[in-house]
Structures are given as structure tokens and as C-alpha cells.
């Protein structure tokens, strides 16, 4: 990691808290506003992102959101898992809110999204409540999506997708027509940073020698452990700041809800990954 002081790390955490606060402000301002299907889905993805950011901060002792009512803990594993969740939520939000799509592209993406959702729903119901009688509605939605995807226009669009992703989409196993790196590239985000975050943080979703080594760098003394949290904090700060900007681009009327200083703070947080 770069040479960063504890005070600079705490400033970074304060930046994350700011992005959360601003995200809540602009999200609440458009609540209930009518919008087209994918933007409606994107607003929910943004809310989920904010929930994940708050959950991440609960594992950061320097944050005012830190959860320590019962027991103080320095928990790198949980913080890293939540940072990875923030990353996943941000990618989904960027994908759902992508502007300037043609009508055909919007319909195609909606079909893929709904086919994936219906497939996931049916598979979950099969395990949890196989006796449910309203599953036919989901089956009908799945069949309609598959039939429409087989129409010449959308079949041609599907055939342009390379690799095994095309087959996974046909089976309802993928909800995005773009790879994560394609989504991030369209936002101008450096892929090396994403790959580093993804590789490092993913090792906490399952136990590995890497996550073991990183966890061994921490103790119950926060001031001697915070450096192990730096990469996760940078990931959360940069992607959440980017998400706030995307939300404002999607709903331009929310731009006036931020002060000039707040806009400058967001621009400073997101700049290194562009």
C-alpha cells in the first residue's frame, strides 16, 4: 500500500461516510418518481449499494457507524466481504443505469434480466417451497422471455455475445449482457484497480492462505491494524463516489442537492480510478 498515515485513513473513512450521506439524500429525493423499467431497477440497486456501504462502515472502528454496542472487534474478514458486496452492487447499478441505449438494446437487456430473475426464482422455490401454486406466473414470464429472445432481432443480438456467456444467458444463468469489466470500462474505471480489489476481497468470501495472512496482520489494537483495511476502504470510497455521480447523471435535478464543496469532495474521491 502507498505511504498513508492513520489520519489520512480516517479522512478516507470520513469520505465514505460523506458518499453514504449524499447517496441517501439524492436517493430519497427521487423516491416514488415514475421512471422507465431499468432506471427503476437501478434506483433499487443504488439503495442496496448504500446498505452495503453502511454495513461496511459497521466494521470500521474509525467510523461513526461502527457497531460496538456488545463487543469491540477488529474484523477484516467481514469488512472485506462487505467491500466486495459494494463492488458487486456498484457494477450492477452502473449496468442498469447505462444511458444512450437504443430501444432494441433496452428491450434485449430487459429480457435477459427478467429471464435470469425468473430462473433464479423458480430454482429457489423448488428448494424452499415446492408446493407453491403461484409458480406458474413465474414459469409464464420465463417462457415469454425465452420466446422473445428467439425472435430474429434479439437472437442476432444474443449471437454477438462471445464465449460461454451466450449459453449461460440462454439458460437464465446471467442477468447482464456485458462482463463486469466491460461495464466498468464504459465508466472509464481502471481495470487494474478493479482486478486487484476483486482478487484480494474475494479471498475473504472463502477462506484461503491469502486471507489468513492478511487477517494475521490485525490484532485487537485498531491503530496497529487499520492498514490491512486500506484496500477495502479505497474500493468502497472510489466506487461509491462514482455511483453518486452516475445517480446524479441519471437524475439531473438532484445535482442542486449537493453544495459546491460536496461536489468537489466527490470528484476528489473518484479521480484516481479514472
List strands and helices in order, with pairings.
Elements: H1 6-29, H2 37-57, H3 76-96, H4 103-128, H5 135-149, H6 152-159, H7 165-170, H8 180-186, H9 191-202, H10 209-215, H11 230-250, H12 260-270
Explain briefly what this protein structure is.
The protein is mainly α and 274 residues long.
Description:
With 274 residues, the chain is mainly alpha-helical. It folds into two domains: 189 residues; 68 residues. 65% of the residues lie in helices and 0% in strands. Helix 2 runs antiparallel to helix 11. The two termini are 19 Å apart. The model has no long low-confidence stretch (mean pLDDT 90).
Q: What low-confidence regions span 5 or more consecutive residues with pLDDT below 50? A: none
**Main beta sheet: strand number and arrangement?**
none
Mean pLDDT equals: 90
Apparent shape: globular
Overall tally of domains: 2
Number of strands: 0
**Radius of gyration computed on alpha carbons:** 20 Å
Order of helices and strands: HHHHHHHHHHHH
Helical content class: 55-70%
Protein structure class? mainly alpha
Enumerate how many helices there are, as a single number: 12
Distance between the termini: 19 Å
Q: Which range does the strand content fall in?
A: under 5%
